[in-house]
Amino acid sequence: MRRIRRLASRLVLLALVLAPSAGPFAATAAATDLATARAEMIRRIEAEAAATASMTGIVRLDPRVLEAMGEVARERFVPAALRERAYGPGPLPVHPEQNLADPFLTALMLHLAEVKPGDPVFETGTDTGYLAALLVRMGARVTSVEILPELAALARRLLADQPADRLFLAEGDGYNGWPERAPFAAIIVKEAVDHLPPPLLAQLAEGGRLVLPLGPADGVQHLTVVVRRPGDRLELRRVLPVRFTPFQRGGRT
Fold this sequence. Notes:
Layout: H1 2-17, H2 24-51, H3 53-56, H4 63-71, E1 92-95, E2 98-100, H5 103-113, E3 120-124, H6 130-137, E4 141-146, H7 149-158, E5 167-171, E6 184-189, H8 198-202, E7 204-214, E8 221-229, E9 233-242
Parallel strand pairs: 3-4, 3-6, 4-5, 6-7
Antiparallel strand pairs: 1-2, 7-8, 8-9
Helix pairs in contact: 2-4, 2-5
C-alpha cells in the first residue's frame, strides 16, 4: 500500500511539472484565455464575499489581496491536467494528501491575516507554493514549512524566481512554527486542527493574527482568526464554516 501511495504521489507531481508544448499562436491564445479566467476568478471572489457578508461581516476584501491574486499565475501551481480549472471554484488536488484551497477561501484567509508590506509571516503547509507566492507579492517576508518532502522540493522549484530575502522555504512539521524566525505578524494554517497549537501562539507577535480552520478533522471546522492582545490575551472570532484536510504531523521538531 505504501508503494502504491508513493507511486501515486510521484505521478501527481510528474503531471504537475510536465505540460505539453505548444506553438506561438497556441501560446498566445492560451495566455489570453488564462488572463480572462483570472479576471473571472476575481469577479467570483468578490461575489462570494458579498454573498457571505452576513456571516463574515466582510463586504469587500482587501484590494491588495485581489490585486495579488490577479497577478500571480495560479496555473503554475496545479497539475498540468487540471490547468484549465486553475481559476475555477473549489479546491484542486496537488497531491494525494493535499489540496490547493478554493480561491475565495484563499482570498478570505489573506484578508483576515491583514498582511502589510514588510510583515514577517509564517505559513504551515507550503504545498506547491501558491499562497507563499501571493504573500511575497503582497510584500511580506515569508517563512513557509511543508511536511511532505516531494511537495517541499516541488515548491522550491516553482518558487525559485522569488526574492531570496523575502522567502524562506523549509521541510518539516509546521505545527512547531519556526522559532528562529519568530515573532510573526501573521500565521496562516491551511489544514484543519482541533485546537490552537501552543508553539504557534508562542511565536505570534503582540497584535499578530493567527488564521486557521479550527475544528475536528472529520467534521465541520470554522475559519477562525486569533489576535494576540497585550498581556498575552487572545481574542478569537469565528468567521465561516469550512472543510479543510487534516493537519499532518511529523518531520522536524
